Amino acid sequence: MATREKRLAQFDGSGDPPPGQTVEVLCEDHSGTYQLPFPCFFIDGKWHNKESGGALEATVIGWRFPRARYDERNGRRPQPNFVSDRASSY
Description:
Blueprint: H1 4-10, E1 24-29, E2 32-35, E3 40-43, E4 46-49, E5 59-64, H2 82-87
Antiparallel strand pairs: 1-2, 1-5, 3-4
């Protein structure tokens, strides 16, 4: 099991994130630390669930910008769609 310090070191956001910016959060309660399985945002001094818009009741101790997720089906991280990016410039 990861230690609190090791998990906290992975959430490198300092201060508050930009208002409304989607981030991943690390929370803590009497059982330990855990990452919420959904994106969140911070606005007007409160943390919110990005999917529902509801306020979090958890104690947030760290945040980071979203990281690329590992795709178990094909064994790699998703790549940007460069074809669509180029097509718009033609």
